[in-house]
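Allow me, if you will, to draw on your knowledge of protein folds for a short while. I have a record of one protein: its chain in single-letter code and its fold written as discrete structure tokens. The full record is reproduced below for your convenience:
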Amino acid sequence: MRAMLATAAILPAYSMNITAQETAAPQRQKYKELTFPKTVHDFGTFSEASGPKTCTFIYKNETDIPIFIHTVATSCGCMTTEWSKKPLKPGETGEIKVTFANDSGAMIMDKSITVYMSSRVKPTILRLKGIIVKAE
């Protein structure tokens, strides 16, 4: 009889604990930030004599607050960058213009551009790719 009473007392408490665990799971929400629809630009195959190559990366502020890009670092001195230093209001778009000097000779190019912004600790990495062939 005591075993039956103990089971009757413990079983509802155990059931409530299981139910509480099922409903207490947190909902994951996507973190809003500055987004880049395209993070890789492939120049394809081009000649070392073709001169500098330029591309533009577009970004959008997906947050509810103004955000700004404070640093854009390139993986080598063969690239230059231009971007607006002004805060980007929510919903606005901006661009980073990257120019590759193309003065290093024939090679397989894979360069990175690291973008540091006010909204994140972890930067966004952009890439430039291409195959540079010897001039004929």
